Amino acid sequence: MEKLFNTRKIRLLIDSDDIDQKNKILDTLYQWRYICFKAANQIYTHHYVQQQLREMLYLTEGVRARLSDIKKDEYGMLSTSRMNTSYQVLAQNYKGSIPMHIMSALNGNLVASFNKMSKALATGESTLPSFRREMPIPFKGTDVKKLRSSREGAVFHFSLFDIPFKTYLGKTGHDKREILQRLAAGQVKLCSSSLALDKGKIFMHAVFQTERQQHELDQDIIAEASLSLDYPIMVLIGSKRYTIGSKDEYLYKRLAIQAAIRRKKKAMAFMNQNSQRQLRKSTIENLMQSEKRYVSHKQHVYSKRLIEICLKNKAATLLLVDQTEKEQQAKEDPFLFRNWGYYGLKQKIERKAEKAGIAVLIE
Q1: CATH of range 218-362; options 3.20.20, 3.30.420, 1.20.120, 3.10.600
Q2: Looking at the domain covering 3-17+137-211, what would its CATH class be?
Q3: Whole-number mean pLDDT of the chain?
Q4: Interval 124-149: pLDDT, tens
Q5: Residues contacting 346, CB < 8 A, separation 6+
Q6: Are 356 and 317 in contact (CB under 8 A)?
């Protein structure tokens, strides 16, 4: 069966009641993140220098040896494999300061990404990127130990590098709860993932490997979906007609958030610069992020409902009717372009349809 990879952003809490221990663990995670930031730049720098040695045509033949392991190639200039060269640098500099499984995962991910862009670097079409201090901490799926659930699957507990964690899934985390239950039962596999730190909060970007579910679909049945202005999605399958969401239900909260942002910005005119800066960094940015999360959540809900309708009616093909025209209309109308989110909704529909084995055609 075909393998599929799904990524879920899961909020984590440190599983301890000791405030001092929590603060100590959080400080440790921030130290690990800083080490990953430095190590990532070192990995790219070392592999870039190795690659450039082959491009230095002005060196003598005796110096321009092959960039390979001398154990496998008598003319090789490396004492080990290219992958292991950067890992040795990391081990020399950071062993004892950070779990080396993190360094191994980081090295593997970045060497693979460097190899993909090495041709563009060699031809000058791309420059060597640098990494940000806020980069996530990578780890392997096998580093997650003792995964178990409590409170009827509402909370999951596990350890990662001997740090106790528990999940916070919230009221809308049903799909995350389901896939974690399948992980605990051994039905799915956790692949290389990462931990992200954001203003004292911990998030796990978990990558799950699943297999495409086989659904009984009829190749002669076509579902026609239209991303309309009155309803986020209208679906027609034969003589059956469905509407998903409504204009008022979708826009009500989003417009309320935008109104709150405008009120805060107007209030800034009567504040000093320090107060303006604090308001912008706290309240306004939080409201903007809240709007993005709301839109993303609604798009997930609507696209999931659409695929469920297709599966219920055994439709093997999903036709997005007049989608190109709708997107053009949205570009010409500032209100639609700002609020309706056609492109993001279309992307989520395509991803969910692919997982279900439904072909998507765009008209």
Answers
A1: 3.30.420
A2: mainly beta
A3: 81
A4: 888 888 888 889 999 998 999 998 88
A5: 227, 320, 323, 362
A6: no
Which regions of the chain carry the CATH code 2.40.280? 3-17+137-211
What is the C-alpha separation between 283 and 310, in angstroms, rounded? 41
Residue listed under structure tokens 């862009």: 117
Q: CA-CA distances (angstroms) from residue 76 to 122, 182, 342?
A: 20, 47, 54
Q: What is the b/e burial string over 185-208, where b = at least 16 CB atoms within 10 angstroms of the residue's CB?
A: eeebbbbbbbbbbeeeebbbebbb
User: Distance between CA atoms of 12 and 204, rounded to whole angstroms?
Assistant: 7
Task: Kindly report, as residue ranges, where domains of CATH 3.30.420 are found in the chain.
Answer: 218-362
pTM metric for this prediction: 0.68
Model pLDDT for residues 196-213, shown as the tens digit of each residue: 998 889 999 999 987 766
Nearest partner of 203 among 168, 153, 162, 178, judged by Cα: 168
Q: What is residue 200's predicted lDDT score, i.e. its pLDDT?
A: 86
* β 240-244/233-237 pair status: antiparallel
